Amino acid sequence: MTETPPPGFRRRDLLSLIGVAAGSGAMYQAMTSLGFAHSSDYGGPIKLEGDPNGASVLVLGAGLAGMTAAIELRQAGYRVRVLEYNSRAGGRNWSLRGGDSFIELGGATQTCAFDKGLYLNPGPWRIPYHHNAILDYCKRFGVALEPFTQLNHNAFIHASDAFGGKPQRIRSVKADFQGQVAELLAKTTAKGRLDETVTVEDQEILLEAMRDWGALDKDYTYGAGLVSAESRGYAKDPGGGVGAAPTPGAPIALSDLLRSGVWRALGNFAGYEFQTTLMQPVGGMGMIGQAFATRVADIITYNAKVTRIQQSETAVTVAWEDAAHPGAVQTESADWCVCTIPLSILSQIPIDVGPKMQAAIAAVPYAASVKIGLQFKRRFWEEDEAIYGGISYTDLPIQTIGYPQSGFHGEKGVLLGAYMFGPNAFEFTAMSPEERIRRALDYGGRIHPQYAAEFQNGIAVAWHRVPFTLGCAGDWTDETRAAHYDDLCQIDGRVVLAGEHASYLPAWQEGAVLSALDAITRLHRRVIAT
Ligand SMILES: Cc1cc2nc3c(=O)[nH]c(=O)nc-3n(C[C@H](O)[C@H](O)[C@H](O)COP(=O)(O)OP(=O)(O)OC[C@H]3O[C@@H](n4cnc5c(N)ncnc54)[C@H](O)[C@@H]3O)c2cc1C
């Protein structure tokens, strides 16, 4: 889910290079071998066969994992109760709209001032076409979807120290990089340097393919002309009538492209999870959580902050406080427990599980991330720059600017004015919300100078300060996975954990749903067996 790479050459940069030079197929191969990309293994709606004989289950947390578990277990005949810290369901599946208030850790309170119909998804915002489980639930629960444009060729890639700080259209960066790499390969082929690896017959086809793929002219050269303009766009677009002939522009030199680092951002369009088609729910990602919640509203206790999880041979007992009126401790018991509380919080709650699961719960740090929504009184990105949906990437601390994916030509709009990870996210998390917004306006104004005149209001969510997750998502490494993942996913007595952290699709809703389906399938098997 993380995107614009920070400075310095890292494994992700290698993947970007492989992706932009050799295409997404090669990138996916490389990612798989490095343990990054994982597709969903959803096998269709689960069938929990066999009578649980009135067994009861306590589900902790009403995010997508918790609600998936609750819906399916109840359907299978269990008596289910859900304890949820927030006064709403959905967890990280959340949309902020005008009038919503949000208190972050440290006490700063923000009240969203967006106009009616506008929203920010502070957490999830896009769903890849191969996230079959979440898409299937959307279909079954009637959540309307619309396209999410990841790659808008007319959005920007911006490098603060290159091209005089002027943002470049993704279209020309992509075409110029691809064209010049194609030219290099064509020249190498023509000089016979590939004779040992590619047959003579295939070299002829390769040359033809490079001309096609890289928009090369008849001499296998990528340069200013109408051929390259078909890919990179024109200095003057074709028109009608007198003087309508188009004028091609000059490509950016390969050396300038390489040194600027703008090629890095191209990797954000190559990865398996960012390939067409992506989707978003109409009206905000929170529509999914709401659709789930209508199916379990009667069994959720809201404002229930779990403070202790105990188990015996025969039952699980959970202590909780009213989050709105802390103090009085209440308890709830059941035969079994599915706990979906994020590990960042669960690691601070006393829980009766064995040392291996304890160690696993404590082993996973949570990634930092910040999202900032900015309302503008005019959709200048559409009116002035013809950017309809999609994403611009920059090496400034804000890293990302996301444009509304629908409502084109409306009056106002909310931009995702920053979406950051890593050190930038830590830095912004330490600021007050007002300061985060001020900085987002300063930085974003270098890409869109209209910011200063058009800004109306904003809201900033720093995930390490979100009290119900204390971080963006579980940040596994190959080492922590090898040491702890299997222990985390075991059923320990009467307790099983679920959530995105218990999946190989961390930081995706698909991971949360698949993990819940897997946990309850195994739990059900055990219940039926006993
Ligand atoms: C910035 C960001 C961007 C993302 N982008 C995407 C994206 O584009 N697409 C995508 O599919 N996914 C994305 N994700 C990931 C996605 O949001 C998560 O993987 C998924 O929502 C996690 O669901 P969950 O049920 O495991 O956890 P959660 O949604 O966190 O649910 C856990 C629940 O436990 C509750 N809880 C916590 N503590 C307690 C307690 N003490 N007592 C009781 N209840 C408690 C919480 O309130 C919450 O409701 C993104 C996440 C973030 C933060």
Give structural notes.
Helix 1 runs antiparallel to helix 2 and helix 5 (170-190) packs antiparallel against helix 6 (200-214). The protein is built from 18 helices and 24 strands. The strands form 8 sheets. A 5-stranded parallel β-sheet has the order 14-2-1-18-24, covered by helices on one side. The protein is 34% helix and 19% strand. It has 3 domains: 56-91 and 287-366 and 471-529, FAD/NAD(P)-binding domain (3-Layer(bba) Sandwich), CATH 3.50.50.60; 96-154 and 277-284 and 367-465, Alpha-Beta Complex (Polyamine Oxidase, Chain A, domain 2), CATH 3.90.660; 170-256, Up-down Bundle (de novo design (two linked rop proteins)), CATH 1.20.1440. The model is unreliable at 4-38 (pLDDT under 50). The longest helix has 21 residues, at 170-190. With 530 residues, the protein is of the alpha+beta class. Residues 1, 60-66, 83-86, 91-93, 123-127, 304-306, 340-342, 345, 369, 371, 463, 468-469, 472-473, 499-500, 507-512 line the site of flavin-adenine dinucleotide.
Bound ligands, named by name, code or SMILES: flavin-adenine dinucleotide
What is the strand tally? 24
By CATH, the topology of the largest domain is: FAD/NAD(P)-binding domain
For the record, what is the CATH homologous superfamily label of the largest domain?
A: FAD/NAD(P)-binding domain
Morphology call: globular
